[in-house]
Amino acid sequence: MNALKDTSRACPESGGVRSGLMWSAMLTGATYVFPLIVYPYVSRVLGVADIGLVGFIDSVVTWFILISMMGISILGIRETAKAQGSPEGLGRVLTGLLAVNGVMTLVCLVAMASVTVAVPQLREHWRLMGVGMCKLMFNLFIVEWFWRGIGEFRYITVRTVVVRAAYVAAVFLTVKGPDDTFLYYFLTMTVVAVTAAVNMWRTRRHAALTRRFVSFRRLAEEARRHARSFFSLGTYMLLTAFYTTLNVVILGFVSTDTEVGYYSTAVKLFSIFLALITALGMAVMPRTSVLASQGRRDVIRRDSVRYVRVLICAAVPVSVLGVVFAPEAVMLLCGPGYDGAVLPVRIIFPFIAVFGMEQLLVMQILTPLGRDRAVNRNSLVAAAAGVVLNALLVPRFGAAGSAVVWVACETIVMSLSIFSVRRALLAPAG
Fold first, then answer.
1. Strands (E), 210-356
2. C-alpha to C-alpha distance for 25 and 284, rounded to whole angstroms
3. What contacts 200, CB < 8 A, 6 or more positions away?
4. CB within 8 A of 291, min separation 6: which ones?
5. For residue 333, which of 53, 48, 41, 49 has the smallest C-alpha distance?
6. CA 365 to CA 355: how far, in whole Å?
7. Beta carbons of 347 and 204 less than 8 angstroms apart
8. Which residue from 23, 74, 327, 397 could staple onto 401, CB 3.0 to 4.6 Å apart?
9. Is 376 exposed, middle or buried (0-12, 13-18, 19+ CB in 10 A)?
């Protein structure tokens, strides 16, 4: 899913766009096919409580990763794409963004260690949190934004398939029961570590260009140059995390690992279908950033209508099937013992079109049109609602409450974004 979003910022030539979109579509498929292979197995051998425990710990870790990364996934792609054709420019971008990201990662590592010691629920699982800290550290060196920025989608796809295939094999060979919960999470972290090692090894020729920037003064200059955009672009992601990740963390603190397992199962099942529908819609939605730069807002409006039609045609039958056959889908994905995931699935699936629309409006229209302020404002409203709803619903209703919070916040963002898009597309160009 993210791969398809990121494609819109690279490959200026039409041939490059088509090639990048093709490889991004394959990458999206691989991103969801491999978890679809692994999750039914581990959900059976670990059990709902241990799946919930891993989901809870990983949600905490994800929060620190989000804070450490901020807006680098967007900023890095944009700045790297601008510097294409200039070895010196690529060296400056790579060095400057790694410096900013490195400082934030160090701060988050210290904060994460402090939180682990201070919070009893986390201190109890200090070994898993230790693996999470390693995941946070290795995440710095993945520099996926660099490869997306220079349009190396073929490399990203091939690497992802190879690394994840090895991960799947390792899980099936070594994870045999609930006692292997730590091993399972360690293998998940290993995917990040191996990806980082491969990417940094491949980046060595570009890193060699940065030797002239090794001095502290030059590093500081480059870091300052990117710092403002780094934090500004990260605002949307952090606000979004308030209603996509925070509810899992709250659920883990106020409820049980079993409830987290139910909710994680519902999200996993929903995400697979959402990715497929989003990929289908993206096929009829060309790069808005190019059209916006050409002032062709009539084309953006026309293609947005085409996207919505495809989205609705695909989402309606999937929503109906998801609600009707939720028990069978949960049983097929996870096996017995996950009956508590059926209600969250039935709450989320009717809103699959809402999620698809929200992604279209934010990532394919407002962001390329430079309406960052509107995106952040809409996300802030949803984040505030998410905090209130989490406090009211999650302690009482558990996994079902988390599902309601997620759906409500996405609906708020979509509704506000419709008005923002109408204003943006009807405003005079330039």
1. none
2. 13
3. 141, 143, 207
4. 297, 299, 300, 303
5. 41
6. 15
7. no
8. 397
9. middle
